[in-house]
Write a structure and sequence with these properties.
The chain is of the alpha+beta class. The chain has helices at about 40-55, 70-80, 90-95, 100-110, 140-155, and strands spanning about 1-10, 10-20, 20-25, 90, 125, 175-180. The strands form 2 sheets. It has a 4-stranded antiparallel beta sheet with strand order 3-2-1-6, covered by helices on one side. A two-stranded parallel ribbon has the order 4-5. Pfam families: DNA_binding_1 (PF01035), Methyltransf_1N (PF02870).
Amino acid sequence: MPHITLHTPLGELTVFEEEGAIIALDWGRGVGPADAAPTPLLREAAAQLQDYFDGQRTQFDLPLNPHGTEFRRKVWDALRRVPPGETRSYIDIAREVGCRSPRAIGQANGDNPIPIIIPCHRVVAADGSLGGYSGGEGLATKRYLLALEARSRAGAATGELPLSPPNPPPMGGQPQGTPR
């Protein structure tokens, strides 16, 4: 499966494409033979993610096709409507999609196959606490992403850089594309 791995402040991320749409984003390096060049869509996804981490982009414009049930896809669509730098509670998302169970929203949120691009990090508990996060370094990663977006929105004119990432990995190199 075509994919591209890129270096970010949160470590390596790998984006996967299937039939002209992004279907997954995983933490770490993709595995598989390295004999295929990244597709134009994967190169665009990598560029948009780099712009996001550089504070130059707060939203993504990519074709997405996350695999999941109709209910989960409704939840993931609702997540994409949460403005960058803002949060919504599991209860808010449940109301928006017509669900009585915030727990079901939490499960769909946790099963999001395209984190960051589908911003599951923007969902918090009803009392405003962060809740959990399964990507990267967990809650430290969630805090970083929320702070990055808040600074990108509010501080674009000041030129301020985002907070330091949790346990920043060594940086370097260019995105790597390999089929999975």
